[in-house]
């Protein structure tokens, strides 16, 4: 696994410390041109299902339950291929998970970073 797995907003300036940059949102970030994202990959299929994302609504009070449900989704067949690809990308020295979400500490990127770290 990556020596360092971080997450942050896709709108932030890129850094040489980012390593592999992977967008983990299901939809493309509003107002961002693809050329400006500087992505190595966009893994939309690793993002939470539309149903889970809508239920969560980025309400911090629901985050614990969101994390539980999302981790269960990562084990489902619909997410397995993208989750495996993300684990492959995490084999590099550094991996930065990107999201358009304003509250990154209560996002799928945070859950994925924790999940990947636990897989070491």
User: Which bin fits the share of residues in helices?
Assistant: 40-55%
Describe the global form: globular
- Ranges where pLDDT stays below 50 over 5 or more residues in a row are none
What is the tally of beta strands?
4
The whole-number mean of residue pLDDT values reads 92
The neighbouring-strand order within the major sheet is 1-4-2-3
SSE run: EEHEHHHEH
The largest pleated sheet is described as: 4 strands, parallel
Cα-to-Cα separation, first versus last residue: 6 Å
Provide a count of the helices.
5
Structural class: alpha/beta
What percentage of amino acids are in beta strands? 15-25%
CA radius of gyration is 13 Å
Number of domains: 1
Tell me which oligomeric state these chains represent.
single chain
Which tags fit this structure?
alpha/beta, YeaO-like, about 15% strand, 4-stranded parallel sheet, about 120 residues, single chain
Summarize the structure in short.
InterPro entries: YeaO-like (IPR052552). This protein is α/β, with parallel strands linked by helices.
Overall description:
With 120 residues, this protein is an alpha/beta fold. 40% of the residues lie in helices and 15% in strands. The chain contains five helices and four strands. Strands 1-4-2-3 form a four-stranded parallel sheet, covered by helices on one side. It is globular and about 35 Å long.
